[in-house]
Amino acid sequence: MNKGGDIIIIEDDPDDQLLIEQAFQELGYANKRIYFPDGLEALAYLNSETPLPFIILSDINLPRLDGIQLRRRLRENASLNLKCIPYLFFTTALNQDVVIEAYSTSAQGFFVKPSDFNEIKQTLKSIVEYWKRCAAPNNFKS
After folding, report:
1. Which domains does the chain carry?
2. b vs e for 12-47, b when ≥16 Cβ sit within 10 Å of the residue's Cβ?
């Protein structure tokens, strides 16, 4: 895990993108945020020669390739899977079946996107702080 890497955010709603970005700006994390409107664009980016991202925050309901399908594709890609990029769902889609399906993809978290800005900010802070403290297999040099 590259704790100084980019935070990949896959969100098709421009208003939600704006709120998420405002929250990150107020939190003051140095990690660059890169936004994608759908899973296909994010997949193309992640398959390119880019620096290892820190975490991926994905909505579930996305055009062209939804968050669940994207997660499955990333797990099937051996080289991306070995990079141990934390994949978390950050979505308004909430019911038991969706949560079960999300965790069946080996996602590392499922967070409900709050409607209140301060709660969005607090949720994002909790996510980032947790992963900044977490060790991953690729944190060790051979």
Report:
1. 7-136 (3.40.50.2300)
2. beeebbebbeebbeeeebebebebbbbbbbbbeebe
